[in-house]
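Note to self: keep these together.
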Amino acid sequence: MTLYATLVPVPDRPTSHARVGRTKLGGRLEKGDALAVRFDDNELFLRAAPVDDQLADGIGDDLRVSASLADRLLPPPEAGEVRVERVDPGVVPVADRVVLDPHGNDPADLASLLRERTALLHPGTERYDIDERTGSTGVVSFTVTERQPAESTVRVDDTTRIEFVDDATAAAEPADPAELRARVEEATARLDEIDRAVTDVRELLAEVRAGLDATEESADGDTGDDTDE
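Structure:
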């Protein structure tokens, strides 16, 4: 079943979950169900945070999402309705690798949480609702700085390599100064060898040219002598 929903950006909402009427997608939505939000030729995946839609002043056909997420990845509300469907989480591309800025959270705990929740991640800063069928409450913030593949939404599973900014940048740190000096000395020695080889080639070319010039002069002399006779 498809819901043609009015997109409603809400400040300070978690980026992981969207509020939607509990009965709007056929059957009864549960918190954490996967939703596909489709517009034009694009799509974004979110978890559901269903609310009672039987009240007269209820949610109606709204899809209430994080304003920051909407600014980054969704069309403006005035662009028209979006299409919302409940989907199997397996349709969301699995993340081979993600790099996160943990915002002061313990990296090991954050990685464990994301794997446990089979988290759906988006580029940029996430405010992840951890109250998902577990009784835990609260929101965890972190930033997704890299993801492979580079889709609008990727799914974390047990195969995903989760790295953190400090770990990812460590490999890019400068080499030890002693190692750098050794590399410079090696490169300099190779350049010296190349210079010597070039000098040898130039000297050989000079000798060849001199020999050719001498041969030409000798030939000219012999031609002149024949003419005099």
